[in-house]
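Morning run. Coffee first, then this:
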Amino acid sequence: MSNNPKTCKYSYNYSDIKTKEYKDYQCDRDTILDSTFCAFHHSSYHETDPANVRKLFLDELTSNTNSKFFIGCNLPSVKISKITPSPSIYFVNTKFHGDVHFLDIVFNSVDFTKCDIQGRLEFTNVNVDVNLVFKYVRDDDSNLVTTFKRCNFKNVEFISTKFKFIKFLECGFSHANFRYTKFDTMIVDECSFAEKTDFGGAAIMKHGEFQSTVFHNAVKFHHAELSGITVFKDVDFKEQKLVRFGGDLSKISFLRTDITRIMFDENTVWGKDDRYLIYGAQKLEKNPSEEKLSPVLTTYRNLRENYEFRLMYDEAGQFFIKEMDLKKKYCLDQNNETKPRKFRGYFSLIYYYNVLCQYGESFNRVVLWAVAIFSASVIYFACYPDVVELYTAKPLGDINYSEELKNNLAFRLQVSMERTLASFFQADKNHLADYIVRLSSLTVLGALFVVLRRKLERKFRH
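And here it is:
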C-alpha cells in the first residue's frame, strides 16, 4: 500500500495580480505514480505522458471555476483556443516544455511571472481586458520567437524580463510597461499604444524595429540601453512633447519619422567618435551604396529644428554642418542612388561656402578671412603705391611723394590702409588690384551677413 499523501505537496508564495498582495498557494490536486506531486508538478510526467497532461490542463482551463492556478506546473506543447474567460489565470513559475499557442481568447488577467519558456510562445487574436504580466521571465533560446499577433491589451507589464526574440504584430496597447526588460531582438510592426509607454531601463541588445506604429501618448526611452541597431520607421509620435530619449543613440535611426519636438536630454550622444554623427551618416560613409542620402539629410534637418526649438543653438549648428558636409561629399545619380562626389566636390560652391564660413555657422572663420584679405591688401598697396593718384588726391605742396613714401614708413602705411579701406568697401580706385580686393571683400562681407543673420534669426525665432 502506498504511503503517499492524497494531495500534492507543492506550495508557492505568489503575488495576487489585482491586489499585489503576497499569498500562499497550496496545490490540492491528487498525487500520481507513488510520488508526492500531481500530474502537473511531477518533474517528468509531462515527458512520460504528455497527452494526459495536456488533456488535464485543457479540462481544468475550460472548467467553470473562478481563478485558475497553474503555478509551478510542467506543461508540454499545447494549443489553447476559445476558452471561457475567468477572472485570473496564473502561470507563475510555470515551465513550458514545448510550444504554446493561445488563439482566439479573451482573458481577464494573465500572470506569467517567473515562467520558464522552452518553446515558442504565440498569442494570436488574444484580448486581455485587465492585466497581462511578464515579470522575471527568461527566454534563453535564440532560435525561438515569442509572437503576439492581432492582440489587444489593457495593461501590459514586461518587467525585468529577458527575451531573445519577440514580435508584436498589429497589436493594440493601452498602458505598456517594458521597464528593465532585455530584448536581443524586438520587432514592433503596425501597433498602436494609446496611453503611456515606458521603456525606461530596457535594453535592445542586437536589433530593434518599430515600423508603422503609432504612440498616442507619452513614451519614455530615457535610460534605455539601445546598444543594438534600433530603427524607427514611419513611426508617428502623436504627443512629441511627452516623448523622452537620452543616453547613447549612436545606433538609432529615424526613417520618415517626425522628431522635431521630441525631448532629447543633455546626455544624448548621437555618435561614438563624433557626438553629432548619426547612425545613418555612419552607415553612409562606410558604404554609400547601402544607404539612401535623402533620409539621412531629413533626419539631420529634423534634429536641427528640434534643437533650435529648444534654444540649443550650438548643437543645432553642429547638425546643420553635418547635413551640409553630406551634401558636399555625396550626390544622387540619375537612378536616385547615392554616389560620392570625389574631386568634383572641391570645385563646388558648397565646398567654398564651407571654407569661407562653415556654411554660415562660423563667425570666427569669416573674421579670419576678412583680416587675411585686409592685411594682404595693405601689404600689397604698401609695396606698390600709386604716386600719381596720391598726388592728385592729396596735394602737399612741394613735397616729393616718392621720397616721402620711401623714407616715411608711417606715411606709407597710412596711405596703403586708406586705399585698402576704400577698395574693401567698394569705393575710390578702379585699378585691377582694387577690383580684386572688392570682389574678395564682397564675398567676405556677404558671408558675414549670412552668419549674423543666422545667429539673430535663431535668437528671435522662438
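The chain has a mean pLDDT of 84. Good start to the day.
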